[in-house]
Design brief:
Blueprint: H1 4-13, E1 18-27, E2 37-40, E3 46-48, H2 53-69, E4 73-79, E5 91-95, E6 102-110, E7 115-119, H3 123-132, E8 138-143, E9 157-160, H4 164-170, H5 173-176, E10 179-183, H6 190-197, E11 204-207, H7 211-223, H8 229-232, E12 235-236, H9 248-268, E13 285-286, E14 293-294, E15 302-305, E16 308-311, H10 315-323, H11 325-331
Parallel strand pairs: 4-5, 7-8, 7-10, 8-9, 10-11, 11-12
Antiparallel strand pairs: 1-2, 1-6, 2-3, 4-6, 13-14, 15-16
Length: 333
């Protein structure tokens, strides 16, 4: 699979999201081995191997949930007959397959690095660009073309203002949803920059301006630019936590403090927006023998009993059902 970290880097560089699933412990008989890995993408596509039919769908479902929440998890798959165990925040799931094996699978979401887009060739913008580097932001500076030669703060990318709309359109949805934008041109091209990012789905948009000038910029975007009040209300202005900042460095710190506080609040909120939009699982059926979730649309193993269709995770469960259909049908009622 071209190396584990190689695949993760490929996804990061492409602005994509992927969840890795790694078998970290197993108890025979199971088909997976310690170190087996798979990757799960937001559309539900799965590459690699971490177990047979019973565990594969469990891993896929929890990998998508890890991408949605942005949080790693350890999934412990145990025989249904095994005694209950303390989970300590892990996910413990019974598996009714006849193998009676067990496996622990570590699932980790790998999300695009958050982008800190700083617009303007001003002292505050320059300091923001420098401070974003050690915080692991992908720093993008946006300035007018004749200002590009003056930007030398180690930004990942320096972009001419005229290319901004195309750049935003070319970002993946996952990258746009993890983009923090600070417009700090201090009146030179605030409106043009905001018009390019207001409908991008960026997580944070801030405008460095006084209250009066900020209100005037937003009013112009509404009156002349055709943006709704709901759209212009997304802009935080004046951006930055009020710490009494006066010098450019102090202002930049106050802005980063607001961005960090916003991210922490977003992560802690029970109403948190998804870290990544993922394919929602469709309706599931329950295998009447092993009690595992089965995708009715994908299952190739079915049986009819008294006018009802039953779905199975594998041939063993279907064979067991056919031997005693009435008993299993009653237990699943």
């Amino acid at each position: 699979m071209n190396g584990f970290w190689g695949r993760v880097r490929e996804a990061e560089e492409a602005g994509a999201a992927v969840a890795s699933a790694t078998v970290v412990s197993r108890r025979a008989p199971v088909s997976s081995h310690v170190g087996d890995r798979a990757f799960v993408y937001p559309d539900g596509r799965m590459e690699g191997f971490v177990g047979g039919a019973c565990s594969r769908e469990i891993v896929r479902r929890h990998a998508l949930e890890a991408l949605r929440t942005g949080r790693a998890r350890l999934v412990k798959i145990r025989p249904a007959s095994a005694p209950a165990e303390e989970a300590d925040g892990d996910v413990v799931l019974p598996m009714g397959c006849v193998s009676e094996g067990a496996a622990d699978i570590y699932i980790e979401p790998h999300l695009p690095r958050p982008t800190l887009m700083v617009v303007g060739s001003t002292p505050v913008a320059a300091t923001l660009g420098r401070l974003g580097q050690p915080l692991d932001y992908r720093v993008v500076r946006v300035v007018e073309e004749d200002e590009m030669r003056d930007v030398a703060d180690g930004a990942t990318l320096v972009l001419p203002l005229g290319d901004l709309p195309a750049f935003v359109d070319g970002m993946t949805p996952a990258s746009r949803s993890r983009m923090m934008v600070v417009v700090a041109s201090q009146g030179h091209y605030d409106d043009e920059a905001l018009a390019a990012v207001l409908r991008s789905g960026a997580e944070f948009i801030g405008l460095l301006a006084s209250r009066a000038r900020g209100a005037a910029v937003l009013a112009a975007l509404h009156d002349v630019g055709g943006f709704s009040l709901a759209e212009t209300s997304l802009v935080r202005t004046p951006v930055g936590i009020d710490i009494g900042a006066k010098e450019p460095g102090e202002v930049a710190v106050s802005i980063l403090a607001e961005i960090i506080a916003h991210q922490i609040e977003r992560q802690a909120s029970a109403r948190m927006q998804p870290a990544v939009e993922v394919e929602r699982p469709g309706a599931t059926a329950v295998d009447p023998v092993c009690k595992m979730d089965v995708d009715p649309g994908a299952s190739r193993r079915t049986a009819e009993h008294q006018g009802e269709t039953y779905y199975f995770c594998g041939p063993g469960c279907r064979a067991a059902f056919l031997r005693e259909p009435a008993a299993y049908a009653a237990s699943s009622a």
